[in-house]
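Side project, low priority. Logging it here so it doesn't get lost.
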Amino acid sequence: MQEHTLKKVENTAYTPPSAAEFARQYNSITSHRLLVEKEEMRCLALNIYWEARSEPLEGQLAVAGVTMNRVAHSKFPDTICDVVQQRRSYRLHRCQFSWWCDGKRDTPHEEVAWRSAQQLARLYLAGIYSDPTHNALWYHADYVKPVWADKLNRSAKFGRHIFYNEEAQQVASLN
């Protein structure tokens, strides 16, 4: 019979660098096996800020999730900034995310909400948070009814936003 002994290990506290320190040091952050430049992180933070700053945490994470789901999907551009800035045309209010082409300045004006959106983007990209939307690619506010919503599967609702994915809707059969 083999005897097991426990060794007392000295408690040495290791504090990993924060996402901000890491990003400053390397001018990027690793995310889901990707290297994300600071400008890409800023685009995600801006999207969280303008689309969901008044939403609960889950709603903000859901916006980040849709943004990243689009980056990973073949129907959408390959970078965060390209997804956020995608336009249907060059007319006013014809963008995937309405804040991008609403004709207003895109500089955040609520300091606490902006800092929160930046931190959330860092943590999401570092893999600390995950997508709560079940792979949603689209969403809208609950006070509008876009024509495309009935063609998609409703996957989640957080705050004032309803999220949709491509999974086929289940239709009950009485046969």
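Brief comment: The longest helix spans residues 57-72.
Revisit when time allows.
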